[in-house]
Structure formats: C-alpha cells, structure tokens
Amino acid sequence: MNPSRARVLLWCVSTGATARVTAVARELLPAQDRERMAQLRSAADRDAFALSHAVLARCLGALTGVAPTALRFALQTEGKPELVDQGPGDRLAFSLSHTAGLTLLAVTRGSPVGTDVERVRPVAAARIAQRYFPADEAAAVAARTERTAPELFFRLWVRKEAGVKAWGGRLVQGLGTRVCTAADDRPGAVTTRGPDGRTWRVRDLACVPAPYLAAVAVPRDEGEGPIEVRTLSVDQLLDRGPAAGHAFRDDPPADRRGPPTAARA
Questions:
Q1: What angle do the packed helices 125-132 and 149-167 form, to 10 degrees?
Q2: pLDDT at 126
Q3: pTM for the whole structure
C-alpha cells in the first residue's frame, strides 16, 4: 500500500488478541503512547489502547521507515495529532479510530483525513439525536422503531465524527453538522460543510463487518477516488506487517445529497 498511488489508505484490523499478541503490541508503542496507556484505569482499556495504537505505530513505521518506537507525535492547533520529524517528501496525515474488537487507520499524503468506527448497539438513539443532531436527522431517527433506530443513529454518528476528525474541533459542534437528509439514510457518500466553511466528502465504508459501521472524511475535491483497503487481524499485522491480509479497493459510492449546507453548532 503506497499513499502516493491512492487518495486514502485504510487498514481495517480485527483486534481480538491473545496475551502474546497484546504483549508484542505494548513493545511497539512509542514512549508517548506508553505514558498515555499507563494512565488508563482498567487492564481491558490498557490492552485495547495497546492494540489499536500498535496498529498506528506499525503502519506509520512501515510507511516512513522509522522504527515504531521512535515515532513522535504532536497536537495541531485544532487538536488533531500529527506525526513530527517527517521528511519533506513524507507529510503523512492519519486518523485512528477503534471500538470493541475493531480498529480503523486511514492515511493520506498530506491532505486532512478523518475516520470513525462504531459497533451498533442499543442506545437512547432518539433522545441523543434530538439533543445534538439537526432537526431533520433527529426526526428520521425518531421515526425508526426502537430496534432499528440505533443503526441509523450510528450511521450518522460515524459520518459526523469522521468529519470532526478531518477538520479538527469539538465533537459537540460536529454532531450538529448535517450529514443526511430525512428521506435518505442509505449507505453512500454525502457532502457537508465544516465549521470553517470548507466542504468535505464523507463516505460510508463497506469494509467493516456487521455489527460495525464506519465512515471516512476527506476534502471534497479529493474524495472522488477509490480507497485502498486492507483487512486483516492484529496478529497478522504485527507479525507480518501492513502488507498482510486481504487488499481491495473501496470504490466511491453515489452521493446521496445535493449541495452541502452550513454546519450547525
């Protein structure tokens, strides 16, 4: 996988792991990540952190030629993490997201990117949507049954959070950004406008298995091409590297919306 030949590289990694694999993951973490991991209270949270951030370290290490433990990160002004000490020809941007059992890593050559993955599960979907989502989206969630509302809720949620991770800023502001019309909640692609007025293309991802939903966001003028996807397990990634697993292209789906609308805070 080469970021010079694809708009977005995406690793979809199953992070169910044995104690041996988790121990290997811990050894790959840069010092900054080890410090962050140590601050987590539960062993389960520390293990999940180690596995997901080992995905990041292993992939970025392979792309840059830097040992995973030697990678260094800094926060941009809008709160987004970035890789420091890159050469002039590198300039990789990335977005990492993980939920129970699955990690997504999106990498681009320089342009902003955001990705998010969530496991569909029972939540107070209508109540949360009414509080944070635009009115038409909240009404679409409320019109669903108690059983089917979470799927629509999380489809909209991952689109919104992918956008926030791409442009930076606060999640609460991103939740008010319109990413769907009330009449169209099918998987696909949408255009939306971030708080800074920039237009973004947000795409649902077909590479994640049920019960997960995921999306990726990039600047609109860079979001028309295919995404190069690799699906694999975390032990395959750590043992054999980022080129292991199954590779395919996620072609751009049809845009489900008309012109983008302004974000709502």
A1: 40
A2: 97
A3: 0.91
Q: Tell me if 232 sits within 8 A of 246, measured CB to CB.
A: yes
261 in Cβ contact with 194 (< 8 Å): no
Residue 218 · residue 166 · CB < 8 Å:
yes
Widest pairwise Cα distance in the chain: 52
> Per residue in 78-130, pLDDT tens?
778 899 877 666 689 999 999 999 999 999 987 899 999 999 999 999 999 99
- pLDDT of 4 reads 47
Please give the structure tokens belonging to residue 64: 């840059």
pLDDT confidence band for 214 (50 / 70 / 90) = very high
The number of CA neighbours under 13 Å toward the Cβ of 169 is 19
